[in-house]
């Protein structure tokens, strides 16, 4: 049996393995797209950036709010999941009292990802979501991944850049 969680070195914008795939990343609730993983994601899949921005500007029926997820098909059998799990944005010029990560929103969003991945019979691929600009604790986020994705027997691959 293949382990459900794989930690690999590689580029999460180029997921590996057979079958349909969902690339999951964390977004903020202010509609900013300009730092971290999204730069590479938007460069490789411009439609993902365009649809996220349209969603943030209210051009999508789906509410733009914490815990929501927008799914964008960027290639046949390849989807990007924009998961809103960060309140505001971190700035170097001011230290927030609380990091932007919102764990309950991440949990809720991962539940939506779970449902979508099950419908698509897809594997899930992501960088270490929430640990960069969002300021999250990987141990906590890994617990959410275990509860929402691995408990549903979904294959999850987490990528670290070499």
From TrEMBL:
Keywords: ATP-binding, Helicase, Hydrolase, Nucleotide-binding, Plasmid
GO molecular function: ATP binding; DNA helicase activity
Alphabetized Gene3D superfamilies for the sequence: Leucine Aminopeptidase, subunit E, domain 1
InterPro entries to which the protein is assigned, alphabetical: ALC1, Macro_dom, Macro_dom-like
Residue ranges constituting the Macro domain according to the UniProt record: 1-162
GO terms classed as biological process: chromatin remodeling; DNA repair
Highest taxon of the lineage: Bacteria
Family statement drawn from the similarity comment of this UniProt entry: Belongs to the SNF2/RAD54 helicase family.
UniProt name for this protein: Helicase-like protein
Species, as recorded: Deinococcus gobiensis (strain DSM 21396 / JCM 16679 / CGMCC 1.7299 / I-0)
Lineage of the species this protein comes from: Bacteria, Thermotogati, Deinococcota, Deinococci, Deinococcales
